[in-house]
Amino acid sequence: MSLASPLVVGASLTTTDIWMIVAIVISLALLAFLALAETALNRTSLAKAQALANEGKRGSRALLDLVREPERFLNPIILAVCIAQTTQAVLTGIVADRLYGPVGVAIATLLNVVVFFVLTEAMPKTWALLYPERGALVSARPVSWLVRFGPLRLFSHLFIGLTNWLIPGKGLKQGPFVSEAELLHIVHAAADHDVIEHDERELIESVIEFGDTIVREVIVPRADMVTVDTDATIGDALGVVIDEGFSRVPVIGEGIDDIVGVVYLKDLVRAYRRGRSDEPVSRLARRAHFVPETKKVDDMLREMQAGKFHMAVAIDEYGGTAGLVTLEDLLEELVGDINDEFDIDDPDVVSLGGGAMRVLGRMPIDALADQLETEFPSDDWDTVGGLIFNKLGHVPAVGEHADVMGYRFRVDRMQGRRIMRVRVAPIPVEADLGDVGALDSIDGSRAVDGLGHRA
């Protein structure tokens, strides 16, 4: 047939051509189904599959088996797609060449790309995105049969093995199939759509962030520690413990870095009732537990559970005392503040109106960032006070401030060298941030920029 002849396909089709066209149509249909199945199955979570199985939906048992081990169906599906796509592309080229020559091959290739994209990619995947549950249930059983097909499973394993051999150490690993960021996004979306309560969302977020928190971020700092000297009497120690409202306190020797043990309130009361109030408290001191301040809090919690103790001394890199960590501190990281009837309510944040707030200097900088829905640098410090110290480069006086990330941090109260309270407010629009030598119109202190330079 010449290239100028009319394209009358039926006139020159042979039986072989017809069978090849049938194979092309079957391959395209298989590709459309595999695209739908891959998208729908990947969009189905294990929890969703379990819920469908509990409802007794048709195909839900097969779906649950597939979703439990996604790698079981991903590799066979990918291999089946490669086989079907290669088959239909080759057969299309053969039929087009036999009927119309090189020009026909070029036209058929162009049409094949359009048909492949529209019919076997865009349409089935879009439908699967719109109806993921229905698509997953419809495709679960056929995909299960496909996965159990011996030759396909064998060759998929062989090809993955070849891939792992060509790229050592980069083979397929088991999960995680959902990152922390994706999981947090799912939780936020669920809360926004009232699938879960906001309190439940906060608890889930706390659990996710719990594993990334270190002991230094939850300790009672050494400056706030309540201790008793080793040569103090049992009566004196009992008075300190009762006045402060603690059930256990560290016993120190030559200084705060020399912790020799921990004394319990119940031991002090028992000894006092037995007339031993004049004896040194060191006789009642129990062994203290020491941990590095960089220890992960989830490991710390498991260690406390296993060792059956409620308090540990956090040690810095130089061996000095960084602070105390208690079981209550760890639990509060998960469920929020736990206050009893003796605790004095001293909120970390007090709203002042106009976007301003007063916060404690020991407030974690990450907590403030969450409160303001922004981000603050947290390189070598964990608290608001630490941020101000770093930016100023010296011990501040009351009224000094530093501008960081569009917010002005002004020191409202000091206790010795400690920053106790800080006023945080958006920087006024009319403020000239470049004029670091200008006097602050509110408190008269000289402005300090975000790099700690003072005029």
What would you say this structure looks like, in words?
The longest helix is centred in the first third of the chain and has 61 residues, at 70-130. A 5-stranded antiparallel beta sheet has the order 8-9-12-11-10, covered by helices on one side. It is an alpha+beta fold and 455 residues long. Helix 2 (15-42) crosses helix 6 (132-148), helix 3 (46-54) runs antiparallel to helix 4 (60-68) and helix 8 (180-192) packs antiparallel against helix 9. It contains 15 helices and 12 strands. The chain folds into 4 domains: 9-166, no CATH class; 180-210; 215-335, CBS-domain, CATH 3.10.580; 349-426, 2-Layer Sandwich (Uridine Diphospho-n-acetylenolpyruvylglucosamine Reductase, domain 3). The model is unreliable at 1-11, 170-177 and 431-455 (pLDDT under 50).
Rg, please?
A: 34 Å
Spatial ordering of strands, largest sheet: 8-9-12-11-10
Order of helices and strands: HHHHHHHHHEEHEEHEHEEHEEHHEEE
Inertia-based shape:
elongated
Strand content is 5-15%
Largest sheet: 5 strands, antiparallel
- How far apart, in Å, are the first and last alpha carbons? 90 Å
Total strand segments: 12
Query: Which spans of ≥5 residues are poorly predicted at pLDDT below 50?
Result: 1-11, 170-177, 431-455
| Helicity level | 40-55%
* Class by SSE composition: alpha+beta
Helical region count? 15
Whole-number count of domains: 4
